[in-house]
Amino acid sequence: MLALGCVIVALACGSSDPEVDGTTGATQQNGNGSGAANGKMLVVYFSRAGENWQVGYVERGNTAIMVDYIREQADVDVFEIVPEVAYPEAYSECIAYVNDVEVPQNLRPAYKNDVTNLADYETVFIGGPIWWARPPMIIRTFLEAHPELKDKRLIPFGTHGGSGVSSYTSLLKEYFPNATILEALGISGASVRDAESKTTVGNWLKRLGVDKQSTAIQSAQVRQSRSTRRYALNGQPVTSQSGIYIQDGKKYINK
Ligand SMILES: Cc1cc2nc3c(=O)[nH]c(=O)nc-3n(C[C@H](O)[C@H](O)[C@H](O)COP(=O)(O)O)c2cc1C
User: Fold this and answer.
1) I need a labelling partner for 222 at 20 to 30 A (CA). Which of 21, 62, 120, 133 fits?
2) What confidence tier does 39 reach under pLDDT thresholds 50, 70, 90?
3) Ligand 1 pocket, 52 CB below 6 A?
4) H helices of 146-249, where?
């Protein structure tokens, strides 16, 4: 806050010296030092509502609940992979379809809409359920549509009925061997609605250094030219694509 206060004071002074470069604020802190605290984060997930193993009929899928915990405790954007053709709501029908058709035919189910600004994100969470001991094929559809994930920091997660989610980590390694893949978190679908699961998610985000507290503004820099001031937060360099600008007395925020 002190750092941000200094920036606001700088704004009030209204200096118009060209290219004045000022730095304010404390030493930057990045959680576990992964650097993820500096970049924008996106959560990409698939989740199926309907009848499911151990939970009966649910209006929101188990992984969707886990995503709610992530978005409450981390500053993330979210993209849901929604299949063009919905999966059967009945559990046994869905099991049969995946086992008899989708997996043996190695299908790549299409999804609605897409992420068009992946370049804006430094860190991408990728998650969903486990289907027949692996991520559903629609996760592969997404990964194959986004080769640019190869340079990202990837965080696997998901819910399961006992198999764990290490297959998400393996799949990401298989597709993007040079990406930085961080610690995965799997939660049992049967217990995801319990209060402890939210805490478990919060502790994981803290360990990764990507929870809201770790990514709060701890430093700010200001660069002044004749009519524009650019603010860089937490050491993130201000580019023409991102940052906070005060130009001709008006504020612009480019995320
Ligand atoms: C088609 C299908 C196959 C599944 N196969 C597995 C499995 O192999 N291992 C496992 O632990 N859970 C399995 N499950 C359970 C789901 O992974 C679990 O219920 C998960 O929480 C569902 O998440 P969702 O509600 O976000 O779709 C399967 C569920 C379905 C519908």
Assistant:
1) 120
2) confident
3) yes
4) 166-175, 195-208
